[in-house]
Here is the input.
Amino acid sequence: MPSPLPLAHLPPGVSLTCSSEAPLGMTWLWSLLLLGLGLGQGAWGKPPPDAGVPLSSRVHQQAPLSEAKHDDSHGDFQFDHEAFLGREAALEFDQLSPEESKAGLGRIVDRMDRDGDGDGWVSLDELRAWIAHTQQRHIRDSVTSAWDTYDTDRDGRVGWEELRNVTYGHYQPGEEFSDVEDAETYRKLLARDERRFRAADQDGDLHATREEFTAFLHPEEFPHMRDTVIAETMEDLDKNGDGYVQVDEYIADLYSPEPEGGEEPAWVQTERQQFRDFRDLNGDGHLDGREVGHWVLPPAQDQPLVEANHLLQESDTNKDGRLSKQEILGNWNMFVGSQATNYGEDLTRHHDEL
Here is the structure.
């Protein structure tokens, strides 16, 4: 078997955690953890019984475009900069002169149009697509960090056999995990990963393109993977196999009571109330697949579209519903930052403090 991969290959949001209040429960995140680490011969036993996941790890909340306050009225466009560029690129633009910043923005405008219909204008859809692209950079980075590890034959695709062999090791048919103490657990994980891979592999050729591999690693980001995320969550929580998540199964995923008994902590009581008031939508006492989906993949506002509308409205001087390169560069300081705009903001802050 291969040696374990470094922790740097763990996808964002996946971490090794230990908690006395949250049992492992073989979550789909754990399956993803095995993919990230690989299985080293003699270096990996079954997961420790007290290894838990953060309480919020099942819920895939949409991250804000920026943590900055959206306050354009005072000339503070930091939110817009981070939404349009992504946080890391926004920091880089902050160090540029106005001339360099405008030049960089001009290149981005050309790319937005080129990636769209190439008609010389930036439409609302093209602007939204660009913002969504910048906000997914951390996901693309995690895929890039794993790609060479799993594309072992360097053909530009990750085949199921490649992924299986790198993650679980090479076995002869019928001998899978014969040398592992908890073989049944690993067989279940292998079957689950194969099911997820087949769902991500939309053309069914058992070879994942980069986009399909991204859907495998980050299923919560792809609408066609929604059923897979729900199915894996149901399997994790539905311990009695009745096809529903009962309130005690829901609580058991979060809290392991002390052996000697005693009262439940107040936060556990709050979670029971949350289950009744907000998880169990039809009030029948348990969660079905639809309710589990509403919980772990809650409906979210299309933030890139909201920001794209805002940038278009603020820059569309002739009100034709689209942006020319000249219009965007004419309002460049809203889209991107520079040393000059930061200097101006510093002066404003200093004046306010006085």
Notes: The longest helix spans residues 98-115. The first strand starts at residue 17 and ends at 18. The radius of gyration is 24 Å.
